[in-house]
Specification:
With 87 residues, the protein is an alpha+beta fold. It has a domain of 34 residues. Helices cover 24% and strands 20% of the residues. The chain is built from two helices and four strands; from the N terminus they run αββαββ. The longest helix is centred in the last third of the chain and has 15 residues.
Length: 87
């Protein structure tokens, strides 16, 4: 009789009491009812704020934008040559 109960997904509690496996009602826990066995939703973390841009980076961005607007393929910034290609 014991193997037949196990195959049926039941377990014996003693004194002839039988309950389904995974039934937490006798452990003192209340079973949470969720539609379609869905997991609880986890709150999304807010998107990280972009880091502050330094004044040198802003200066480079302005030089890059001006070179692209003028149609140049390269430009010089602080003594170095850079191209205006986008990734």
């Amino acid at each position: 009789m014991l193997p037949a109960l196990a195959r049926a997904g039941l377990m014996i509690l003693g004194e002839g009491a039988v309950r389904p496996f995974g039934d937490d009602t006798l452990k003192g826990k209340e079973k949470v009812s969720r539609p379609n066995n869905q997991k609880p939703k986890v709150k999304a973390k807010p998107a990280p704020k972009p880091k502050a841009t330094s004044s040198a980076a802003k200066d480079f961005d302005r030089a890059f934008a001006a070179a692209r607007k003028a149609g140049k393929s390269t430009f010089t910034w602080r003594g170095k040559k850079y191209n205006t290609k986008l990734k």
